[in-house]
User: Which sequence fits this backbone?
């Protein structure tokens, strides 16, 4: 069973085993497939969770985790969300009457492996770069086409926020962007850590471009913050990414909104606020996932209220 899963961080191999086991246990709910390959040839795993109810016009929610390699708690959240969706006694499962879900539990598998095996605080992908063989990888949250190479990113291959020579130069972001274009989810959630924030677009200044949906997105995010707080009294803040964190261009959620691929997009920054940072202790995996998944349930519920099928 999965009783012990949320007491220890999972490697890429363990994540792969986890989702395959979930599929085996829930064959009519869960479909595991690959949406491409990483630079080093690992599968980019996507897990579709859908319930056959006869309805053909359900909302789609796309959630990615682990775009940044060292943010291990986010991979755990995707796995936790998947178990909740399959657990018939969970409020998440009830959402399947109105929503389909597509979950990417390890959006940067090469980076995750590098973080486990070689350097715990690795952030980027693991591709080789055009000029400097000593500096590896692209920041997969600076490699998107909206504001590419702008404020908060670097054109230095050695930088942790290296944006790549061109948008979608990294196979991991190119593959994810294609899924977003094909699927056009109602809600796109990109899971990161840390800071305990729910971030909204735009986090990159673009002349003439405003998030037309901001007020409604803020209202929904505030409800999600409240639902999260209700579980373990963890304090979150929801707001514009640039205002409450920093300006960062080339991010995935900004691109998805700017391209009109989704109606709602949020970047979560999970626990903690910096005491342990990326090295969040394993005894915080379960409570972090419990509260985060509760907030995602509320987010979906609030979106459904405003967008009935
Ligand atoms: O800098 C990032 O990529 C994210 N923070 S992290 O510490 N996980 O690296 C924040 C992304 C901000 N999002 C937008 N600009 N929309
Ligand atoms: Zn991140």
Assistant:
């Amino acid at each position: 069973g999965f009783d012990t899963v949320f007491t220890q961080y999972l490697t890429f191999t363990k994540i792969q085993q986890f989702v395959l086991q979930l599929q085996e246990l829930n064959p009519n709910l869960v479909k595991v497939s690959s949406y491409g390959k990483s630079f080093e040839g690992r599968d980019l795993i996507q897990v579709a969770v859908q319930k056959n109810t006869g309805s053909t016009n359900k909302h789609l929610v796309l959630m990615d985790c682990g775009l940044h390699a060292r943010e291990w708690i986010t991979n755990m959240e995707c796995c936790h969300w998947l178990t909740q969706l399959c657990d018939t006694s969970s409020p998440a499962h009830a959402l399947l009457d109105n929503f389909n879900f597509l979950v990417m539990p390890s959006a940067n598998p090469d980076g995750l492996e590098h973080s486990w095996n070689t350097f715990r605080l690795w952030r980027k992908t693991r591709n080789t770069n055009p000029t400097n063989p000593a500096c590896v990888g692209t920041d997969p949250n600076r490699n998107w086409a909206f504001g590419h190479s702008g404020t908060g990113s670097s054109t230095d291959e050695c930088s942790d926020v290296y944006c790549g020579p061109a948008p979608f130069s990294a196979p991991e972001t190119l593959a994810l962007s294609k899924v977003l274009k094909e699927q056009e989810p109602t809600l796109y959630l990109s899971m990161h850590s840390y800071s305990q924030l729910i971030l909204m677009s735009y986090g990159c200044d673009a002349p003439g471009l405003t998030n037309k949906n901001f007020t409604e997105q803020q209202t929904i995010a505030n409800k999600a913050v409240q639902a999260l707080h209700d579980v373990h009294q963890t304090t979150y803040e929801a707001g514009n990414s640039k205002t409450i964190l920093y300006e960062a261009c080339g991010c995935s959620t900004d691109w998805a909104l700017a391209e009109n691929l989704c109606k709602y997009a949020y970047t979560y920054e999970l626990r903690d606020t910096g005491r342990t940072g990326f090295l969040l202790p394993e005894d915080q995996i379960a409570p972090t996932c419990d509260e985060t998944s509760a907030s995602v349930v509320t987010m979906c519920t609030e979106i459904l209220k405003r967008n009935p099928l």
